[in-house]
Design goal:
Elements lengths: L1 E5 L14 H12 L5 E3 L2 E5 L3 E6 L6 H8 L6 E7 L7 E4 L8 H10 L5 E6 L9 H6 L4 H24 L1 H11 L9 H4 L14
Parallel strand pairs: 1-4, 1-5, 5-7
Antiparallel strand pairs: 2-3, 3-4, 6-7
Helix pairs in contact: 1-5, 2-3, 5-6
Length: about 200
């Protein structure tokens, strides 16, 4: 069975935040597949015979606690997370790698004891100054950013279909043949990380 884990923080205040793009994509995919999430231990699960969707409710820093409980075969698993080092809406696929400073990936690597698992990283851009990073990833997407992400989401859904049907390599092949850049159509202020909502969330996860 394929397992797809979307990373994020539980709670209404985080629903539309950049750090929650993993949750947001799985919510969209579950709607597309006509599935419902149900609470189970420290995660929300949506299950079909072929695959399992997982949204950890442990908060980002402890994502690995949920992953290690529900993932039986790491080779058949995919982790979806945000990436500040990619322009808004860009998708990158990797079969292994480090945590890149992402606390969710760091927790998963620690709990699993390996870097070798598939991940789909979705770009959210980065703030002008690194001192703003903590607030930036917890801030909500703006309406303009959501419009860009809608295009990304449609492509991501096709990639997830490929992963479920034939595995990571099939998904990677589809990505290589069909990948597009959405950041080219962004207003300059969004490319630079400006133009975000003025209300900043405090506290870090």
């Amino acid at each position: 069975m394929k397992t797809i884990v979307g990373l994020g923080n539980p709670g209404e205040s985080y629903q539309q935040s950049k750090h929650n793009i993993g949750f947001m994509l799985l919510d969209y995919y579950a709607l597309y597949r006509k599935m419902m999430f149900k609470k189970d231990g420290n995660a929300l699960l949506a299950k079909r015979n072929q695959f399992l969707l997982i949204k950890p409710t442990t908060y980002m820093n402890l994502s690995g606690k949920a992953v290690v409980r529900y993932v039986d075969n790491i080779e058949d698993s995919l982790i979806i997370c945000d990436d500040i080092y990619l322009p808004l809406g860009e998708i990158r696929l990797r079969s292994s790698g480090g945590d890149g400073g992402h606390n969710g990936l760091k927790s998963i690597i620690s709990e699993l004891g390996t870097h070798d698992f598939g991940r789909m990283r979705i770009g959210v851009g980065k703030p002008e100054h690194t001192s703003m990073l903590r607030d930036y990833v917890l801030d909500d997407f703006t309406e303009n950013e959501i419009d860009i992400l809608k295009k990304t989401t449609d492509f991501a859904v096709k990639l997830l279909d490929c992963f479920i049907a034939k595995g990571f390599q099939s998904m990677l092949n589809h990505y290589s043949k069909n990948k597009k850049s959405y950041s080219g159509s962004l207003p300059i202020e969004l490319k630079s990380g400006k133009g975000n909502s003025e209300s900043m969330t405090t506290g870090g996860k």
